[in-house]
C-alpha cells in the first residue's frame, strides 16, 4: 500500500507542465546578430540581439537587446536620444512624453563597460543593468516601440538593424 506522501508526489508528477508558466532566461538565448554604433571616430556601444531560437522571426516575438556602453552617457542624454528616435519613427508627442517619463524613472546614468539589457518576453518589457532587473514596462505598445528604434525597417540605423537581425 502506498503512503500518503508517495501518492501526493505521484499526483504532482502526473500533472501536465504549463508551458506558459515556464520561461527561459534571456541569458541562455543564443545571439541572432551583433552591431557597433559609431558616431564619427567614437564608438558609442556594442549591441547584440538574442532570441530563444537564435533567429529573428519578428519584433513580436521574445527578444533581448543587450547594449554594452563604450562611453559614459548621462541618463538625460539617453532619454533625449530615445525621444529623437521615436520622433523619427512617427510616434506622437503625447505618447513619447508619457513613455519618456517611464524611462526616466528606470534608467541610470551609464558608465563605460555598463550593460543595459531590454528583454521583451510574453509582451512584457524588462530592463536590466548588467544582470539586475531595474524596471518593468507593462505597456505593450511602448515595449514594441522601444525595440523599433533598432528593428523597424524605418530605423535611423538600417545597417545596425541588418546586423542585429543576422542579415549582414
From TrEMBL:
Residues 56-166 form the Chalcone isomerase domain. Keywords: Signal. Residues 1-19 form the signal peptide. It holds the Pfam family Chalcone_3. InterPro entries: Chalcone_isomerase. This is Periplasmic protein. It comes from Photobacterium aphoticum.
Amino acid at each position: 500500500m502506498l503512503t500518503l506522501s508517495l501518492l501526493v508526489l505521484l499526483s504532482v508528477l502526473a500533472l501536465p507542465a504549463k508551458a506558459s508558466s515556464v520561461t527561459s532566461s534571456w541569458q541562455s538565448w543564443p545571439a541572432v546578430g551583433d552591431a557597433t554604433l559609431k558616431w564619427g571616430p567614437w564608438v558609442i556601444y556594442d549591441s547584440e540581439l538574442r532570441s530563444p531560437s537564435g533567429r529573428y522571426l519578428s519584433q513580436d516575438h521574445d527578444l533581448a537587446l543587450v547594449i554594452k556602453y563604450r562611453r559614459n552617457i548621462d541618463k538625460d542624454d539617453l532619454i533625449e536620444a530615445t525621444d529623437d528616435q521615436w520622433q523619427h519613427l512617427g510616434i506622437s508627442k503625447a505618447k513619447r512624453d508619457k513613455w519618456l517619463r517611464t524611462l526616466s524613472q528606470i534608467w541610470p546614468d551609464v558608465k563605460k563597460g555598463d550593460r543595459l539589457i531590454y528583454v521583451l518576453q510574453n509582451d512584457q518589457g524588462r530592463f536590466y543593468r548588467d544582470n539586475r532587473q531595474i524596471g518593468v514596462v507593462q505597456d505593450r505598445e511602448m515595449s514594441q516601440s522601444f525595440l523599433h528604434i533598432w528593428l523597424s525597417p524605418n530605423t535611423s540605423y538600417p545597417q545596425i538593424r541588418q546586423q542585429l537581425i543576422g542579415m549582414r
